[in-house]
Recover the amino acids of this structure.
């Protein structure tokens, strides 16, 4: 089964690539790796949530936002090389805008990791960094970037 068929089986449609809000490109290929820029929880060009996790945003809501950000990162991969070229997910880096004292960043990023595992199965197993930060672009609670190996 191809990854695009797996996405269809899951009822997941890859969205259009989110336009960069700075001087960078959404994804770049170097050798057999594709690196994405940090992706935000954006739908149709609009941020769907703002605030800090542990204050205005619950960890459960933030998990869904991390999943959406990962979907947007996957869309950037697809736009560059096609999702079916993915051999495996190598690394996920996630940033969580955290209220003071919030230490559940790994739980929040499980939203992205679990989604990638659902799509790619064993090829979705990856290393990860979950980083708490004071602010993120456009006031979003979560930002996710991917490194994937491609054929």
């Amino acid at each position: 089964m191809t990854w695009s068929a797996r996405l269809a089986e899951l009822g997941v449609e890859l969205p259009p690539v989110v336009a960069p809000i700075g001087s960078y490109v959404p994804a770049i290929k170097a050798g057999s790796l594709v690196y994405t820029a940090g992706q935000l929880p954006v739908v149709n060009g609009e941020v769907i949530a703002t605030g800090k996790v542990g204050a205005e945003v619950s960890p459960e809501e933030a998990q869904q936002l991390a999943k959406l950000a990962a979907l947007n990162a996957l869309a950037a991969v697809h736009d560059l090389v096609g999702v079916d070229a993915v051999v495996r997910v190598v690394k996920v880096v996630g940033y969580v805008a955290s209220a003071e004292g919030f230490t559940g960043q790994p739980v929040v990023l499980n939203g992205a990791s679990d989604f990638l595992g659902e799509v790619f199965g064993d090829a979705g197993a990856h290393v990860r960094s979950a980083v708490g930060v004071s602010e993120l672009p456009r006031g979003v609670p979560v930002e996710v970037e991917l490194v994937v190996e491609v054929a």
